[in-house]
Amino acid sequence: MKSSKRRTYSRDEKISILKRVFLGKEKISDVCKELDLHVNLFYKWQVELFESGLLGGTEKGSSGVSREQKKLQEKVDLLTKKLERKDSIIADITTEYVQLKKTASEIYGING
After folding, report:
1. 45 vs 27: CA distance, rounded Å
2. Concatenated DSSP letters for 66-99?
């Protein structure tokens, strides 16, 4: 039985492998087969890249949140406020519509 030696990859090697798929348009299965790499490990690195900052080097403020995360949160907050405003306007218009419909049915004797 062949003994398997555990390999370790540096951050740069992981990024290089991920780039082959994302930028080079190679198939995950082909890259993993060539490197004798389990597909699940590739996906783990992908998650690390997008969630944990495998790339590193992001500038962080005193709170530990990167500038990009802060910008994204500000954008989410802005869009949330816009959505709340639109919801409020829709509620006002709907209330006015219902009232006008009631008034019209009373005046013209229309049901429904």
Report:
1. 16
2. BHHHHHHHHHHHHHHHHHHHHHHHHHHHHHHHHH
Report the alpha-carbon distance of residue 94 to residue 88 in Å, rounded. Answer: 10
Q: Pick from 48, 13, 7, 47: which is nearest to 31 by CA?
A: 13
Q: What is the rounded distance in angstroms from the CA atom of residue 30 to the CA atom of residue 84?
A: 47
Residues written for the chain:
112
Q: 79: which 2 tokens? A: 């869009």
Q: How far apart are CA 42 and CA 33, in angstroms?
A: 11
CA dist 95 → 34, 83, 87 (Å): 64, 18, 12
Q: 2: left (phi > 0), else alpha (psi -120 to 50), else beta?
A: beta
Residue pLDDT, tens place only, 33-92: 999 999 999 999 988 888 766 555 544 444 556 788 888 999 999 999 999 999 999 999
For residue 17, the tally of other CB atoms under 10 A from its CB is 21
